Amino acid sequence: MSADPSSPAYFGRYQVVEELGAGAMGVVYLCVDSRLARPVAVKVLRENELMTEAEREQYHARFRHEAEAAGRLTHPDIVQIYDIGPSYLVMEFLEGRALGAFLKAGGTFSVRQICSLVLRVADAIDYAHRHGIVHRDIKPANIMMMDDGSVKVLDFGVARLDSSNLTAAGTVVGSVQYMAPEQMMGERVDGRADIFSLAAVAYELLTGRAPFPGKTITEVVSRVVHGAHVPPREVDPRFPEAVNGAFARAFAIQPASRTGRAMDFARDLYEAAQPVLDMEVIHGAPESTPTQVPVPGTTVQVPPGLGPRAAPERAGVLLLDSDPPRARVYLDGSPVGETPLPGVEVALGRHVVRMEAEGREAVSADVELERDRPLRALSFTLPLPTPADAPIRPGQLVEFSPAVTPPQRISGAVPAYPAAAQERGLEGAPVVELWVGETGQVVDVAIVESAGALLDTAVLEAVAAWQFNPARLRGVPVSVRLTFQHLFRR
User: Fold this and answer.
1) CA distances to 32, 111, 174, 229, 420 from 222, in Å
2) Model confidence over 210-226: pLDDT tens digits?
3) What is the pTM of this model?
4) Does any domain span residue 297?
5) 417 in the same domain as 369
6) Is there a single domain that holds both residue 176 and residue 272?
7) Which residues form the catalytic set?
8) Residues 260 and 145 in one domain
9) In this structure, are residues 395 and 477 in contact, taking their beta carbons and an 8 Å threshold?
10) d(Cα 40, Cα 90) in Å, to the nearest integer?
């Protein structure tokens, strides 16, 4: 799909290559960052010509809030925001396929794969909720299945901060097939609406059908607001009764009666589905049999990217520990035990590790095992929750949240492409973690993902010389950690 000739050639420093698609709030373009020479996705605000000036101002305000909200989220399963323009935001360019496209094309998931996917999306949703952000439009089209097997939650185009009133009462935003009853009624929503929507996605993955079927939108809405979903066992009796219970709690009409956290629903589902984890769900079957769960041993055709990855030539090992000990460990959404874990065998490649402990904040991190580095030892410190009214000390190391004003770089050059690397034709994208102190200086910088000594050194030397306006929390200068990636390409 080529770019529209009438569209600008640039958005800021981002050169338009082609149009990728259009959504409710804007058009998405594939662009190239002329400064960093990396591909990015730029989402540009699309206005309705019939809008009044007041409506246009409100629309722009919602767009700015989208960008600010999404830009605060740094989670391995949430699309990363790089930059914000006057009417556009710049996101990482993802190579993958939307879950909705997978389902439409037809394919097969095992129940185990579905539960793992739901756990990972739930982790991302709960992370956003802890930062005061409600997505409001969780659906298969907004869940990207990446080529490396990972997952990304997309499009915070209808997300809003809990404190925002830009989405007025009586205004319905979202996709009706996955929408919570309070959202349909135009009432105020919180994170429990996202849990309802996640359960609707999980139901469709498991059964191939919508939980609230109807021939018209009116019929669907009526079933949702009256809580008339079809229990999964009525679609296929091989699902355990406990699976019905997990969905009944997530689909409760009243938010107060609904499952409280996305991860709680995901775990309920995983536990309930234990007897049938190896069953396979075939999507795209004839209308008369929209879901088939073949008995063990049945041979099915799995489209690329849907089925389990081929067994690796070599396995990797993770050694996992935590402070405090006995933290619950989840690998790619599936529970693997409690710390300390002396050795967890995993496939080579990228994985997400999450640890939880009672009375502590959960911690998630990306881990990559490579052929030359198949063994990784990780130890996580799970921080104590900080009371909302706790005094802030200058220089205190804090986690990003909506209350934190991010640091802004005020001096220092971007990394220069080393001549020796150019001569050798080296390309890569090193990722570094910066510790920015309360005076705006870079206290520490370390390589998170290496691209080789030449390119790593170029990034480290440039970043170490940067100076920032420091991050602030309640007006107090604080220390924060953030990641930065630079792409070197010939």
Assistant:
1) 46, 29, 17, 11, 66
2) 999 888 777 888 888 88
3) 0.62
4) no
5) no
6) yes
7) 137
8) yes
9) yes
10) 7
